[in-house]
Amino acid sequence: MNDLLSGALILGFLVIALFFLRFWRSTRDRLFAIFALSFSLMAVNRLILAIAKLPEDDFPYVYLVRLVANALIIYAVIDKNRAHKATPRPIP
Known about the structure:
Elements: H1 2-27, H2 30-52, H3 62-86
Helix pairs in contact: 1-2, 2-3
């Protein structure tokens, strides 16, 4: 049952990453590329845990990959907001 749930999570993360990659290809917005990278990292993390059959509680370093993935999402949002504020708006 745990393998089934891991497979579903991996598939979900990969589908989300592919959606963001598609948005990035059409807009060339860095936010979508970073989101795709982040969800790909989460899928790889889950894949490693499923293949190696590592219990998450005994190996806390597996959380580092998730930390990096979530930090990438936070960075992307902050970067997007800074870029939006830095662009001067035309005066009507």
